[in-house]
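Reviewer 2 asked us to include a model.

Predict the structure of this chain.
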Amino acid sequence: MGRPTKGTRPKTDPSLTPEFWSQLMGNAAPTQREQFLWLTIHHVRAQGLAQFTISQVAKQLGYSVAMVNHHFGSRDGLISECAETVYGRYADALMNAVTEAEQTPLTRLKAYLRASYEWGLKLGGWSVVIHYPNFSFENPDIAMDRTNDGFEDSLNSTLVRITQLVIDLRKGEISDGFLDQTKFPTNALAIDEDAVFYAANIGFVLTGIRAWMVGRHSAVSEEHQHFERYAAVVRRELDYVVDSIPVPGK
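Predicted model (structure tokens):
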């Protein structure tokens, strides 16, 4: 069915309890629209976008797929809004890691990169969507028009933040804010041309790590016997690439 008969409730999957919603999104009684949004986030994280279908979400909630169009316009509209929500939390987590780290240039940079990796694991199937959005939608232009600029240029915003953290490391001080993304890389090159190179190198490493995580997002399960070994190698690589950055005067 599409909409339930007035005065009745749709037959929902019994596993979608208030406890389920509270754990998933922090609200035990989400609206119908929020249920579609967060249940989609849940399934894409676990399955990946290629395996996800909107019919499975609609069926669990007791509606037809027409309700997706009602709330989000299309499948792409639903996925793009989910991706923006996921990326917003991801970006906030990285900045919180920088704020909560010991306030030295080195520890701030390492905290950012480790959080990028660790939260990347939590993203699961969303990694490919938020980092490679143009490859994730049937109609990328329409999908991007439905969102703000929260994740559309996420790779560039990541490089901007890393560059600022590298500049701080090489200057031995902590900046008040980050470089102006609209003027990057011109302003960064004027401050420290080499910092852009080192930041790009880190960006390439992170891109490779993300590509690995996208292909192995199911490896986050505790049952995967080799996962912790891979994770240790990644953490070592992140430390290595940061420690290899030359600091003037040292």
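The radius of gyration is 21 Å. DSSP finds twelve helices and no strands in the chain. We have added this to the supplementary material.
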